[in-house]
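Work Package 4 report. The design task specified in the project plan requires that, given a folded chain encoded as structure tokens, an amino acid be chosen for each position. We show below one input record used in the internal validation round.
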């Protein structure tokens, strides 16, 4: 770890963090878990391949998914991110009052077994839904778009099909995310 320090502040889940001096080569995942106690983002491969550690970067051009295990705090400094802890709506006591449609669909479809990879899948599917709000896709292209968006995520419990079906159903059942006619097969589960 580097001896060089960097004053870091970010916007995490809609709240600005206090400035803190961090080693300039510290990874964003370590910052989230060790300094902010946001442990929902998981350490998987440590190489940015499995995306268990993925979070949403609220980039100026739209949401992007970034693997936090290979993303340094030097790059993340001054940027805005959403972790899995920040997706659901909470009351003043911090209790979850409403899940995102993606989270609810993952539950409804029994998409995960051990759930270790789930935060990354939630980030990828949520970023996709938000991108489609800005630029809908043709209904006949939904399967391909979902597969492309979730393709970087690895699930060792083989839950891919259920994650894909859940994400597809959210997109097909949310007005404004697609263009074209609704077919009876679009909403079949």
């Amino acid at each position: 770890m580097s001896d060089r320090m960097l004053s870091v502040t970010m916007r995490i889940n809609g709240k600005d963090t206090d400035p803190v001096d961090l080693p300039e080569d510290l990874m964003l995942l370590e910052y989230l878990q060790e300094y902010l106690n946001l442990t929902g983002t998981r350490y998987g491969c440590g190489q940015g391949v499995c995306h268990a550690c993925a979070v949403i970067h609220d980039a100026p051009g739209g949401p992007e998914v970034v693997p936090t295990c290979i993303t340094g705090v030097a790059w993340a400094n001054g940027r805005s991110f959403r972790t899995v802890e920040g997706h659901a709506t909470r009351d003043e006591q911090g209790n979850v009052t409403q899940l995102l449609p993606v989270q609810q669909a993952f539950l409804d479809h029994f998409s995960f077994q051990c759930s270790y990879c789930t935060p990354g899948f939630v980030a990828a599917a949520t970023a996709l839904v938000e991108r489609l709000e800005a630029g809908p896709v043709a209904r006949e292209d939904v399967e391909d778009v979902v597969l492309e968006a979730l393709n970087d995520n690895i699930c060792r419990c083989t839950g891919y099909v259920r994650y894909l079906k859940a994400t597809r159903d959210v997109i097909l059942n949310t007005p404004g995310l697609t263009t074209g006619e609704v077919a009876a097969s679009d909403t079949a589960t």
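The radius of gyration is 17 Å. Validation will be extended to a larger panel in the next phase.
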